[in-house]
Amino acid sequence: MTNIVIVFLRDLLPIFILICYATEIPQHFAYSKGKWITMVVIGVLGSVVIWGNVEIFVDWFEGAGMEVVYTLMIMLSYLMFVLAWLASPKNAKALLFTGVALFVCYKLTEFLIFFEVVTQQQVGFLNAGLGVIFGIGICSSFAVLFKFALSQIGQTKYRYFIILCWSMFLAGLLSQISPLLAQVDFVNTGVSVFNLSDYVSDSSEYGHLLNALIGYESSPDATYLAIYSIAFLVSLLVYKFRRGQQHAVISGALSHE
């Protein structure tokens, strides 16, 4: 049952967190409830298709098919979210629609695959059911508290902190390609730069929570840190550039008046 709860924290909690950000960055996620349902449904259908044909995907690229598929979905999802800052409102909606659908598809595919493995370990129907109930309850409860915290921060002078958190969330998303690429020997992970497992272990509930929030790794290697840092800075710089453009437009309009 504990393993099932951890699977929920690792794979489904990020989706809840994404939805929380969606309601607190309205200029970035200007979507109706119907559009959100459509995006999630597309992501669910995509994950079911991949999960149902996982053996076919695994055989791609000489056995590295799933790693390649995950990497492409992660990179495209990150790219869609970042480029949406620069796009026109109409194009931003299309980019975000694609990004959210890919994100949901990626996370749900991981969830379905690992959930199937966990439930096959003779955990029993009752334990599996309780694990699902606890997992959904924890994710939902945390989402409510997190959304409340974001809404409160958004009403203060520290609302820019939300953009910092969003950038760390995106950096954590993109940095997940590091272990995937290492599994197919595309990159060499090397030695860990530091180790924080004595404080918060990756396998603990807090480790999974921090990983979902900001991409926490207790013992990251240089490749992971490099991808994380670049992704974080790119997201912030693109946001600052967009804000600069908006201020320039407003200033120009006021000067003409």
Structure description:
There is one protein chain. By secondary structure, this protein is mostly helical. It has one domain (2-241). Helix content is 76%, strand content 0%. It is built from 10 helices and no strands.
Order of helical and strand elements: HHHHHHHHHH
**What separation lies between the terminal Cα atoms?**
65 Å
Helix tally equals 10
Per DSSP E runs of 2 or more residues, the count of β-strands stands at 0
Q: What is the general shape?
A: globular
Radius of gyration: 19 Å
Q: Which bin fits the share of residues in helices?
A: over 70%
Low-confidence stretches: none
Beta strand %? under 5%
SS-derived structural category: mainly alpha
Number of domains: 1
Mean pLDDT: 84
Characterize the main sheet: none
Chain-wise SSE layout:
Blueprint: H1 2-24, H2 33-52, H3 54-58, H4 65-83, H5 89-119, H6 125-154, H7 160-174, H8 177-183, H9 205-214, H10 222-256
Helix pairs in contact: 1-5, 1-6, 1-9, 2-5, 4-5, 4-7, 4-8, 7-9, 7-10
Q: What's this, in brief?
A:
The protein has helices spanning 2-24, 33-52, 54-58, 65-83, 89-119, 125-154, 160-174, 177-183, 205-214, 222-256. By secondary structure, it is mainly α.
